[in-house]
Design brief:
The chain is α/β, with parallel strands linked by helices and 279 residues long. The protein has ten helices and eleven strands.
Length: 279
């Protein structure tokens, strides 16, 4: 059976702990082995994301849009493979094809926002004095994402892409129920133009990793997209330790509400600068 590895810093390492767990289909049959990420795996992913973030933030909006569009092209070229994996997870052919197409469409949708959200959320502020005052959006930094369990492909795309589009880097804890789609998507990222370290994807158990994710002092923001009330409370409480920005939004990932420039803005900081008026 295939063993799905982790995706850290553009490579596919095995978990440092050597632990694995069984992935079964809807009939209870063993279909693959999944790495069970540890605290050290998360730390390695965070180090890669932090190192890559300044360079990613420095890229032009046009270039980031090109890269995300390239992800959509590769996903489209491998759509049959993703349909088959979704069917193995219990989807019907129609449901699988719909989710794959929706994921491609979402990537293309966000490509269009790559050079526009700045104009929407930045401004020249009116002030009474001989100077200009500008407000500009800047990325938060490194974002930890606990991806939704439902819609394993579309949910991953919907949470990941608006985060990295805004110049952030990401460490993702993949769907616990259907994690294989996330690592297959990592293969798409690895063969696209996404630089190493921008996206890091872990597979494993939420109850083991959520405390490390929510207390790590180098995490700038967290998007917890699941409905476990105990974990949601833990994220809210632990975020105060590092003044992390948290988002607990959950959507019907197939609806338009799950794609919005305001989601990009959720992981942006507003920088205000002053400049004297020339004579």
């Amino acid at each position: 059976m295939k063993t799905y590895k982790l995706y850290i810093n553009g490579a596919f390492p095995r978990t440092e702990s050597g632990r694995y767990y069984d992935l079964k289909n809807d009939k209870g049959e063993l279909i693959a082995n999944m790495c069970r990420a540890s605290r050290k795996d998360f730390r390695n992913a965070m180090q890669a994301a932090r190192k890559a973030q300044p360079g990613w933030q420095g890229r032009t909006a046009y270039n980031i849009g090109q890269i995300i569009y390239r992800i959509a092209e590769i996903l489209d070229g491998r759509s049959d493979q993703f349909v088959e994996e979704l069917k193995t997870a219990g989807y019907t052919s129609k449901q699988a094809e719909k989710e794959v197409q929706a994921s491609i469409n979402r990537l293309v949708h966000y490509t269009g926002w790559s050079d526009k959200y700045q104009q929407l959320f930045s401004s020249v502020n009116p002030v009474a004095g001989p100077y200009f005052n500008f407000s500009k959006s800047e990325p938060t930094g490194v974002v930890a994402i606990v991806a939704p369990d439902e819609a394993p492909l579309l949910g991953l795309v919907s949470t990941l892409i608006p985060v990295i589009l805004g110049g952030n880097t990401a460490v993702v804890l993949a769907s616990s129920k259907q994690p294989a789609l996330s690592i297959t998507f990592a293969e798409v990222l690895a063969t696209s133009d996404v630089p190493a370290g921008i996206v890091n994807i872990l597979t494993g158990f939420e109850d083991e990793l959520i405390s490390h994710i929510s207390t790590h002092m180098d995490v700038n923001a967290i998007w917890y997209a699941r409905d476990n009330q105990e974990s949601r409370k833990m994220v809210q409480e632990n975020a105060a330790l590092n003044v992390q920005r948290i988002t607990l939004d959950r959507f019907d990932w197939s609806k338009d509400e799950a794609q919005s420039p305001y989601i990009i803005h959720s992981f942006q900081e507003t920088k205000t600068t002053w400049h004297p008026v020339g004579f």
